[in-house]
Amino acid sequence: MDISEAILLKLKHYPGPNEADFQSKHPSEAAQAAVRAILDEAMRIQIESGSKTLIEIGDEVSGVMGERHQGLLADALDELANYFTYLVK
What we know:
The chain is built from 5 helices and no strands. It is mostly helical and about 90 residues long.
């Protein structure tokens, strides 16, 4: 399983549903758990928002996750940042 591809697929229509498409390509519980772990990790990042814009916050999340998971593609990091900012706005 390519974790970047799996993240991109999981978040493809976020916040709309994409479970059926995701599960058809990644039916194993291990794959689903791996993606869920990355999403949960992203949401646990502590960001001092202060006067930062959502774009700046997203960039910070993308940077932190990129450092922690150096194999993630830029597109997957962007989607993680979008996921984070959508949930915290």
